[in-house]
Design brief:
- The structure is a single chain.
- The chain is of the alpha/beta class.
- It contains twelve helices and 22 strands.
- Strands 17-18-21-20-19-22 form a six-stranded antiparallel β-sheet, with helices on both faces.
- It starts with a strand and ends with a strand.
- The structure holds flavin-adenine dinucleotide.
- Flavin-adenine dinucleotide binds next to β1, α1, α2 and α7.
Length: about 425
């Protein structure tokens, strides 16, 4: 067996994605709680300041442990040769890495993705950051403009505002995280407004220019001034698969019009003997979906267990603070299916645990099928939402009716203890 890595072991999640961002979110949370200390009766005894070099050093030390651990493990694995370099297909059975060439009966493509850099006017005239180059930032950008009001942009935006930058978020669409329901977008915007982030929606015509040391982003927003100035720009407008430099045409592997490798429900490509896993197949954009892809492929190949991608329930979290935990369909998606459904909702202001912790922003929402009584989807935007969502996700996975969890006795005081209560107060989901 051979494994080829062109850059950093651990890929996006370990080096420029989940791990570093969540360590930085933790630093930002510490800063926020220090600023709020007096509310909890705690005296700090002076102004709160953030040392960005130490924030970065903490992040680097955590991700380096993870990267080195993975690299050492792979290099010590029996019957596995690790190649450092860029892999390219030469034919359906042949891959080259630099001057080396190797053949195999089974080839697994797991090349991930990178930040999209769209051809926006003037972008070539100004310096900009992406999620990768943000990892080298060991200073406080005085005025940070984040282009893109979705998952990556919001996590970075809130954390840098908490570190002390003045952050503006520019979003082309009419609301933040437009894949979520309107009430979720609205509550998230409220959370960020409470921390004084400057949010511009409907920025239909984004263009960049320089004015002395400043970067100007023209927005033509429906409201507010038509341009925003800043010292630094972070582009967070989506990801694209790393499939354009792989020689896929020489192997005959089919990609779709956005470059994602086309796979079946068991992750086989159109070429027998070649599978595609992780972000590059367009069937998920998360570490847990990428990991689950590897479980599906190995179960099929090694254990004669026909696991499939369609067995998986969509689930993810957005790690702003408080976080959003999501499982299954949104309310909008349920409406589009036309089925009759019930919905339960509760603000975090009515959750004891949230009140005790002084973190009452957000709400919980659960939608169930009125006939089968199976849970269709849920959103928990609030303290502990990234964890509490799993008690719903597991019941969905078990295909059990919601009444099973409604009768469960949860621990007091927790966020999860209100989930049975919400399920006892369901109302018909109305058409809009
Ligand atoms: C800022 C940010 C935050 C994120 N936070 C989360 C989160 O909290 N939770 C979550 O679940 N997901 C998160 N994600 C998404 C997550 O990082 C990805 O879904 C996950 O890393 C995908 O794993 P993968 O194995 O498909 O690809 P990757 O992790 O991208 O790995 C692909 C590897 O292939 C290598 N490679 C590419 N082309 C070649 C080639 N031709 N030859 C040799 N090697 C090659 C790359 O160098 C890379 O190491 C985040 C992403 C970003 C950008």
């Amino acid at each position: 067996m051979a494994i080829v890595e062109r850059k950093l072991f651990g890929g996006t999640c370990v080096n420029t994605g989940c791990t570093p961002t969540k360590t930085m979110v933790a630093s930002a949370y510490a800063a926020r709680m220090a600023q709020r200390a007096a509310e909890f009766g705690v005296s700090i005894g002076g102004p709160v300041s953030v040392d960005m070099r130490r924030v970065k050093a903490r992040k680097d030390s955590i991700l380096e442990q993870s990267r080195t651990g993975l690299e050492t493990w792979l290099k010590q694995m029996q019957n596995c040769t690790v190649y450092k370099g860029h892999a390219r297909f030469e034919s359906p059975r042949q891959v080259s890495v630099g001057a080396e060439s190797m053949t195999a009966d089974r080839i697994f493509i797991n090349v991930g993705g990178r930040a999209v850099v769209p051809p926006l006017p003037g972008l070539d005239q100004v310096p900009y950051l992406t999620n990768s180059s943000m990892m080298d930032v060991d200073f406080l950008p005085p005025r940070l403009i984040v282009v893109g009001g979705s998952y990556v942009g919001l996590e970075f935006g809130q954390m840098f505002q908490r570190f002390g930058s003045e952050v503006s978020i520019i979003e082309m669409g009419p609301r933040l995280v437009h894949r979520e329901d309107e009430d979720v977008s609205e509550a998230i915007q409220g959370i960020l407004n409470n921390e004084r982030l400057n949010i511009r929606l409907n920025a239909k015509c984004i263009a960049f220019s320089k004015r002395k040391e400043e970067i100007i982003v023209r927005t033509e927003c429906a409201e507010g001034p038509a341009e925003i100035s800043g010292t630094h720009v972070l582009l967070a407008v989506g990801r694209r698969p790393n499939t354009d430099d792989l020689g896929l045409d020489r192997a005959g592997v089919e990609v779709d019009n956005r470059g994602y490798i086309v796979v079946d429900d068991q992750l086989q490509t159109n070429v027998p003997g070649i599978w595609a896993l992780g972000d590059c197949n367009g069937r998920g954009a998360f570490t847990h979906t990428s990991y689950n892809d590897s479980e599906i492929v190995s179960a099929n190949l090694l254990d004669n267990d026909p696991r499939r991608v369609s067995d998986r329930i969509p689930a993810y979290a957005l790690y702003i603070d408080p976080p959003l935990g999501r499982a299954g369909l949104t309310e909008n998606e349920v409406r589009k299916t036309g089925r009759s459904a019930l919905v339960g909702k509760r603000p975090m202001t009515r959750v004891s645990r949230a009140i005790e912790k002084g973190e009452t922003q957000g709400f919980m929402k659960i939608i169930v099928d009125a006939h089968s009584r199976e849970i269709l989807g849920a959103a928990i935007l609030g303290v502990g939402g990234d964890e509490a969502i799993h008690c719903i996700l597991d019941v969905m996975h078990a295909k059990a009716p919601y009444t099973v969890i409604q009768r469960a006795v949860h621990i007091h005081p927790t966020v999860s203890e209100l989930i049975p209560t919400i399920l006892g107060e369901l109302q018909p989901l109305r058409a809009v």
